[in-house]
Every structure is written in structure tokens, then in C-alpha cells.
Amino acid sequence: MKPNDVILQSVTKVAVVIIFTFSIYLFMNGHHNPGGGFIGGLSTAAAVVLLYLAFDIEKVRENIRIDFKKLAALGVLIAVCTGLGGVLFGEEFLTQAFGYKELPIFGKTELTSALIFDTGVALAVIGTAVNIILSISEDR
Amino acid sequence: MHSFYIILFLPFLFAFIVPFLFKYINKRIHTGWFVLFVPLTIFLFLLQYIPIVAKGETIEYNLPWIPSLNINISTYIDGLGLLFGLLISGVGTLVILYSIYYLSKIREELHKFYIYLLMFMGAMLGLVFSDHIFILYGFWELTSISSFLLIGYWYERKSSRYGALKSLLITVFGGLAMLAGFIMLILMADTYSIREMIGNAAFITNHDLFIPALILILIGAFTKSAQFPFSIWLPDAMEAPTPVSAYLHSATMVKAGIYLVARLTPIFGGSSIWFWLVAGIGIITLLYGSFTAVRQTDLKALLAFSTISQLGLIMSLLGIGSLAVYFGPGESGALYTVATFAALFHLFNHSTFKGSLFMVVGIVDHETGTRDIRRLGGLMHVMPVTFTIAVVGGFSMAGLPPFNGFLSKEMFFASVNDVASAGIFGLEKLGMLFPIIAWIASVFTFVYCMILIFKTFTGKFRPEKLTKKVHEAPIGMLVSPLILGTIVVLVFFLPNVLGEYILIPALIPVLPMIPIHRDDLYITAWHGLNPELWMTIGVVVFGILLYKIVKGWIKLFNHYPQWLTLNHFYNRGLAGTEQFSKNITNTYMTGSFRHYLKYIFVFFVLVLMISFLFLYGFQFNFSNHAPIGIFDMAVVIGVVAAAFVVLFTSHRITAIVALGAVGYFISLFFVLFQAPDLGLTQFVVETVTTVLFLLCFYHLPKLRKNIGKISLKLSNLIISLAMGATVTILALAAFGHKVFEPITYFFENAYELAGAKNIVNAILVDFRGFDTMLEISVLTIAGLGVYILIRQSSKRREQSNETE
Amino acid sequence: MEIVIAIVIGILVTIGTYLLLSRQLLRIVFGSSLISHAVNLLIITSGGLKKGNAPLLGEGKIGFTDALPQALILTAIVINFAVTAFVLVLSYRSFKANGTDDMEKLRGNEHE
């Protein structure tokens, strides 16, 4: 890599944290506000891509030891399994459930199976997007 | 589900076990021994119906399959079905027993063989017992397919493949014609059930579609039963292993057409066109088959043509019997009932003697290594048992006593004599042709039977022409033909047991309107010195005469021009159609991506525009449109400008950035249109996509100025403009019309139903979760696709580097 | 507004079609990308423009724009991303393998 990437790298270090936080916010809030699995996943992927652009691929790979292909597959698996969860309770495939629970810190919180499904979606999106970009950039 | 269905589907069910049997047990025990139980069980199971059906009762079972389409596997056991069912399972048992000794367990791929055979057996059984006409059709085509597989069993041989393909093409062609005929029948009778169709026969007879349906269905039956001129597939089908020939071409597959004609006689019989087609084609086939069989030198080919000829005989008898429908109950009707009875009787007899003859030929082939008559001879002393069976089968086929063929042949002569004096359908003038043709054909039948027996088994034994040391076949191989031969003799002496319990019950469904006179249907070997007997005596005298001088006149066949044969027409026709479709395909499948896209676009424009014209789609309603703000206009201009930059620029980077700009403007549109989720998603996706383009452009060459002919560019431009205009009109028309109420109000209950306040998200993860699940699957697959594309090629590169 | 959007859709489709018909692989990818933008616009506009608030129940408003097209488009955008990526990689792979990105030279011949 060229030596004059210092500015980009310093900015990236800060930006990535912000983007990650923001994407988690987008993802968690997706049920009630704009956001959700797709957007959360894509913005996370964008952050990872930014990391790859700013730093060496090898360096990032050393620090993020995730096989993104498997991550995508895991996402699909989670989504399918939530679908099967409904079947276990005698409902149609992919019936989602939700309820409210008092949790220690958060107070009254909504718990939904849709969130798990959305997690699957987000993982699939992250996995695929990063996998595509990585594959291409590795092709020399 | 009644146990009958288990029996009916037993062949299919058992086929699943066959591969495992072959893999694990075949080394010790021949797979055939296990398969043998299937037809045997079916046969024994079916035996229990004989007393019930002989009393004139019928049994029906019903199994829902696709209730919404009114398709049920409705089955119906009556005499006709039972006769066929017993033949299929009975001969099936013997054939499998025979095949155990015929096919080597070491060399052959037995699992395939037995799976095909079981598939065929199951299809035949389903065919003869179904009442639902589409189920019957399905089984009909399944017999074609499985016989294709069986004929092509030795697929390494070119001739096997040729024969298999030929039989498939011809029988499936006939099957499709038959399907069209069936659909017409359904339209006419307003039912899917064959029995109800027969009940509604009165409506059908006067319907406009009567004759087309009749002809189409007969094409199906004639192709299957190898009637002239569709008979050409049968000789080539002899490439199949001999057990298959013995099964398919003596007792089962070729009899399917006979079954169909018999089954539908109550509907179509009684019309002159049915009579002339069935009886006329049948008798022509009889003559053609016997005439051609005489000149064959291959024993199996001889049997093939004799099968064609015998099928013609049965077919013509069915045709003559259909006159009974015309005459109705009464003396004349009863007279022609005998013809149908004779058809069923001969059908049974043919299965027995032809089955045994095929097996005999198989034995000769197996033990001597050849089926060529010119190399065989004098086997009588080497293979006495085989010779005896051959004599029994051959004399029965020639119509000699004391074998069952004599009885049915006499009845055949009686029937053709009766038809000469029928006096309807133009038979006053042409009626005499029937006995004449029948007699001539019988003479030739006699000759080829004698050739089959005596050229093979008498004369001089010439071991030097044979590749193997000849000896009698193993006992296991002789059991099946021996059983069949015994039946041939037994039936001659006790024909009325068969008649009473099997044939008369089978006759009732063919001619339900005629009351049965058992006295007319009493079979006797001796009925005085009547014309039939004289005809038989004539056949024998002339037959012996012709056989003695056969060397002299058989050379005449060589003068027949080759290009006039049916096979020649088939081959030329096939090559011609292939060339024709190839030429047509080559005119539009140019290999050019642009051409294919053009077809799609032009089709799109034409279809939409034409349907707009005809459905009065050009109605726009601008009343409810939203106002335009300044900000909206700015975005619109931005999008259009960026799009034009993509079109005109010749710099890759500019194009990519402009494309990204289009995407960002679109995301602004989404924000303006109150779609925050979309705006966000589009924004992020566009970013990632732009990165993607920037990564890839490294690998792609520079954009070139669009070179090419002006006319080409112009046509591209015209198509593009037409596409744009069409989509604009479509959009305008769509915006103005609301045919249905939007269903979005349902989703506005998202909070109550899904606990979500973001409706879009609720739709994605809850209401339409299935779509989303599949979508991420597609996404993942695309990602894996990209990975594999790159990984594969870089691997290949590494490998090529290593080799260098 | 609808008329303007319809015209924008028409322009995008025209340009997209023209690019698809061109000879260079990269242009073809651009074309398909433009057409998918046009289709997204078409779908969202057929749901009605500016007919209510954003489909979020949490803000205490009533009267929302049609949420269904939005959900459809959201799916379409993400799928489109995957397809674009795939086509891009396919095209540069084919360029590397065949040494040309000219569609007229990339004709499949039957006797290859």
C-alpha cells in the first residue's frame, strides 16, 4: 500500500466505529423506525469494505477472522430456523411471535422472533456483500 | 386404500429395492429370483377375482390423487381388465423366470433391466385397470417410455438405440394423437370415467367430434399394436433382449392397442368408419405381416413380422365383432359377438404360443450364438425339448390341431365368412375380400411357421457354422416355454373352461348391449365339414406346396425396390424433419446476444401495444396527480443528466461515477416519496455498488467509441425509443387506474398483528417473511457464485503456472 | 408529478435499452443497472406519490403512503445488487478468458 494513506486510515478508524454503532442502531430500531436487517447489514458491510480499502487486506483479515461465506450461510440458516420455530408451535411456517417482558436495565422491552429473523437477514447481507467485494479484490 | 392398490403399485414399489438387491446380494443370488415374486404375487392376487368376475360382477376402487383437478386413480376390475391383468402378470412371471437363466448375473446390469421391466409391468397393469381416462393415458405413455428403455437396454449397440428411438417416436406420436382424441371424448361425454363414457355413448355417436376422436384414438391404438403402416417399429424393437421381446411383443405392450380398441368398442363400434378402419387395417396388416415374415432369415425378425400379422388378425376380428353393436341384440348381433369372442380367444392363444416361440428362439440364440436360419439346421437331435416346444408353438400359430391356435383360427375363418354376407357398410360388394385375404394370409402364415420349425430343427446339422458348442438348454430356461406349451395343448382339449371363466366375462364389457348366448360361444374342435374346415385344409395343402418350392419363389422379393419400403420413408422423413428444424433454428439462433435481446424487446413492445389497443388501455387519468415542487424538478433533471452522461461518456470512471449519481438521485426520490427505508437502503447499496464497479473496472478494458454501422445504431435507437415510449405509456396508464383497492390497509394494522411500528419492516420480516427468506437465499447463492467464478479461474491459472 | 416521473422512467429505459444493445460488456452492465432503477421508480409511483406520511406508526400520524411497493422495492434493490455483482464478475471473467469484451466476437458457435 502507498504510504500517504495516513489521513484515510486515521479517519477510517473513527468512521468505522461510528458506522458500526449507527448500523447496530439501524438494525435494532428497524422494527419501529426506518432500518432493519437489510440496511443494518449493508451499512455494516460498507464499514468492513471501508476497512479493507483503508488498510491492507491481510491486515484486516488477521484481525477479523470471519469467513464471510459461512456468515452468509449462517444467516440463511437462522432465517429458516426461525421459520421452523413457528412450525414447532403448530403455526404456519414463518409465523412470527412477539411479546413484552420487563428486563432489568431496559425496562419494558418488546421481544420478537422477527428480530431473530432479521438477524439472519442482516448476517446474510453482510456475508454476501463482503464476500463479493473480497473475492473481487483478491483476484489479481 | 384398498390392498388392490398395493398390488397395483407393487412393481413400482419393488423397483426401489432392486438396486440394493443387485448391489449386495446379486453376487450370490441372481436378482431375478427376488423380482420373480412380484408378478407371481400379482397373479395369485388377481386369481381371486376370477369367480367374482365370472358371475358377471365388477369391482371398483377409488383413490383420490389430485381431487382439485378431479383426477382420481379410479380402478375398475371387469372381465376384460382381468384377462389382460392375468396375461401381464402370468406371462410376466414366466418371462422373469426365463430371464434369470438368459441374462448373466455377472456381465449384465441387472438392476437396470429389472427396474425397467417392473416399470413396464406396473404401467401395463395400471393401463388395463384404470377407469379414469387421463390415468389410462399416463400409463399408456409410461409403457412407451419403459419399452424404450427396455429395447435400448444394450445401449452400446447402435441398432439398439435406433430401434428404441424408433419405437418411442412412433408410439409416442400415436399416444399424442390419442390424447387429442381422449380430450374430444371428454368434451363429448362430459366425464373422465371410461365407464360413464360408455354409458353416454348415445350422445357421443351423434356429435360432430365423433369421427375426429375416433380416428385420433385409432392412430394411438394402431401405433401401439404395430398395425400397418405403423408396424415398422416392431422389427427393430427385436434388438431388445429376448425375454423382453417375449414379454412386450407377445403378451403385453402390443396388446395395449388391442385392449383400447376392445374397451372403446361400445362407444365407437357400430359406425362404418370404425368397422372399416379396424377390420380393414387389421386384415391388411395380417396379409402384410405374413407376407413379409416369409422372407426373413433372422428368426426373431420372422417372429416380429408374424406378431404384426397376428395382431392384425386380432384387430380385424375386433372390427368384425363391432358389427354386433350395429345390429344390436338379436340373431345378427349374436353372430358377430362370436367374432369378438374369437378375438379375445386368439389374443390369449397368441400370448401363449408366441411367448413360447420367442423363448425357443432365445434358447436357440443363447445356445448356438446365432439366429440366422441360413446357418442353423438339424438342431432336433441336439435340442429335443426345445424342438418339441417349437413344434407345439409353431403348429398352433399355423392353425393346426391339436393346439389352441386351431380353434381360434377356425373361429376367425367363420367370422370372415360371416362378414362377407353382412350386407351393410358397402360389404355387399367388398365383403368377399375378407375371406380371400384371410385365406391367402393364412397360407403364408403356414409357410413361415414351417420355415421357423423345420429350417431350424431339421435338415443337416452344421456345427462348423456356429461359434459355440451346441447342447440342450438348462432346465431353468426350458421351464417357462414348457409351461406355455402345456397351456397351448391344454386349451385345445379344455377350451370351454377358459371360455367360461375368462373369455365370456371379458366379452361382456366389450359388447355390453348384447345378451350372451352361451351356446353360440361354446368352442368345439369339430363342427362338421363346414367351409372353415375346408379353408384350413386348403391352407395346409397349399402351404406345404409353397413350402416345398420356397427357394424358387422367395427370390421374387429381391426385386422389390428398396426405396419403396416403409422403413425408407421413416428414415428419410426423420432426417428431413431434423434438417428442417435445424434450418429454422439456425435462422434466428444466431449466437448474437444483441439479436436475442432484440427479439425480447420487440416482443415486449408488440405484446403490450397490441393488448393496449385491443383492451382500450389508452385511457389516462391525470386528475389525482401530485403537485411538482422545485426540489422534485431538480432531482429529475439530475437523474436525466446523469443518465445521459452514462450513455455518452467514453471514460470508464466518468460512467461509473455518473451511474452512482443516478443511484443517489433515485434514493433522493425515495426520500421525497416518503419512503425512508428505501432511501437509506438505496444510498448504502449505491455506495457498495460503486465500490464494486471501481474494483472491477481494473479488470475490464476501456470503453470504446461505439463503432459500427449507422444502420445498426439506428435500429438500436428505434428499438430503445420504442421501449421507452411503451414503458412510459404503461406507467401513465397504470398510475391513472386503480382496478383493485390497495391492500396496504391490511398492513397498517402492523402494530397489532406483528408488534411493529415500521410497516415496511413488518411486511418484510413478518407478513411476507417467506419472500425475504428466499431473497436472502438468492443473495447468498449469488455471492457464492461470484466467489466460485473467481476462485475457479484463479485455481486454473495456478495449475497452468505449475505445469509451465 | 406522475407524468414527469413517467417520462423519467421512459428516458431511463430508453438509455438502458440502448446500452444493453451495445457491443461492450461494461455498457451492458450499465444498461441493466439503469433499467432496474427505472423499474423501481415505476413500482413506487404506481403505489401513489405523496399520498400520505411515511409508513411509520410510531410518529402518531395517520394516513400513510402505500407500504407494499416499498417492501417490494427494498427486496428488489438488494437482489439487484447481487445480480449486478454477479454480472460484473461474469463479464470481466469472460473478458479475461476470451480476450475480448465485444459481444459480436463473443458469439457462441455451434461447432466449437
Characterise this structure.
The complex is a heterotrimer of chains A (140), B (804) and C (112). Chain A has 140 residues and is mainly α. Chain A has helices spanning 6-29, 37-54, 57-63, 68-88, 113-138, and strands at residues 98-103, 107-112. In chain A, strands 1-2 form a two-stranded antiparallel sheet. Chain A is globular, with a radius of gyration of 18 Å. The two termini of chain B are 68 Å apart. The radius of gyration of chain B is 36 Å and the shape is elongated. Chain B has helices at 3-15, 18-24, 32-35, 37-47, 49-54, 79-102, 110-129, 133-151, 158-189, 194-199, 201-205, 210-224, 233-236, 242-251, 253-268, 272-293, 299-321, 323-327, 331-368, 384-398, 404-420, 427-430, 433-457, 475-493, 495-510, 531-548, 550-553, 566-588, 593-614, 630-648, 652-672, 676-697, 710-736, 744-747, 750-754, 759-767, 769-803; strands spanning 59-66, 71-77. By secondary structure, chain B is mainly α. Chain C has a single domain (2-53, 64-98), classed as Orthogonal Bundle (Helix Hairpins), CATH 1.10.287. The termini of chain C are far apart. Chains A and B meet through helix 2, helix 4 and helix 5 of A and helix 32, helix 36 and helix 37 of B. Chain C: It is found in: Cell membrane. Chain C: Its main location: membrane.
